[in-house]
Amino acid sequence: MIQEIKSIPKWILIVSWLFALIGLMVSSSLIFSPESVLKTVDLNAKGVGYLTQMWAARQFAIGFIFGFAAFKKSIPMLKIAYIFFLVMNIGDFFIGLLQQDNSLYIGAGVMCIISLTMLYVINKKSK
């Protein structure tokens, strides 16, 4: 256990804490002020509230996973968190392409690169 704590670079923990914070902030924004996040969506349309709550739950899960993994300073947990984040952003990338939403697929592409970089460094450090 002590080896795991020493082998994780501080910058990876900082980035992981930032992802945790962002996930929790987006989640709370979606719950308490969805109009601030979803400016172009009719929030009164049938089913939109349900989808907003599902998105908030997803963001909360992301924030919690990253926060818990960073708190525990666990290489296996961080690997799982970044694999989850990578898979999620690959999905967002293709959704952005299909919806012709440049900001979504560019942002998701950048997050895929960050996730892959983090996984590479974590795997390199765990050997």
> What value does the Rg take, in angstroms?
16 Å
Number of distinct helices = 6
How many distinct beta strands?
Answer: 0
Question: What is the beta-strand fraction?
Answer: under 5%
Helix content: over 70%
Instruction: Give the CA-based shape.
Output: globular
Distance between the termini: 14 Å
List the helices and strands in order. HHHHHH
* Largest sheet composition: none
Query: Which regions are unreliable across 5 or more consecutive residues at pLDDT < 50?
Result: 1-5
Average predicted confidence as pLDDT: 91
Number of domains: 1
Strand-pairing-aware structural class: mainly alpha
How would you sum up this structure, described in words?
The chain has 127 residues and is mainly α. It has one domain. Helices cover 85% and strands 0% of the residues. The protein has six helices and no strands. The two termini are 14 Å apart. The N terminus is likely disordered.
